[in-house]
Amino acid sequence: MSHPKAVVLVSGGLDSATALAVARARGFVCYALSVGYGQRHEAELAAAARVAAALGAREHRLMRVNLADIGGSALTDASIAVPEASSSGIPVTYVPARNTVLLSLALAWAEVLDARDIFVGVTAVDYSGYPDCRPEFIEAFAHLANLATKAGVEGKHWHIHAPLIAWSKGRIVREGIGLGVDYSLTVSCYQADSDGRACGKCDACRLRRAGFEAAGVADPTRYR
Asked: Is the residue at 122 inside a domain?
């Protein structure tokens, strides 16, 4: 019996590693896609390759779309500082339309692979409040996929999976460990250095650390 294929967006961080593990546990043959979009924390791309290999992805592909040419985010514009204190509202680390772009690339590759499933590790609990991490965005993108592709209009229904969307960071860590994720391979920090060492101060670092604490698991993150 052949297993269904899935494209999994793998950023190199904690959440996407868990999403890849979930897809594998559900019986999918996983094709991991990472995107270099001009992010200052390029160390996450090396982490993505490690994660994809460790979790048995059939293939890992890196694509580049330079969103730094647009700017507007602390993650793509070096002149905007990454906040090191929590704040209200959508933070400056939001990258305009990032998840729409990344899911579109995953959709294109999935159509070529004749896959009908895409996994993304977004969560709407213990997160930074980005609008493209909400359940209604995932639902809307699935609707778009079925309207905007040859496969969709021919009746081959698309499924956009966001298995972590309602999980706390603590649950993500617990579930991931149960599925064999080695979180020491991952990089979540928004301003990780070239060796992948974390600042320990940005929003991503605070959420990651809290997840390990909530799960009662030692934090394997390398801090500088």
From this structure: yes
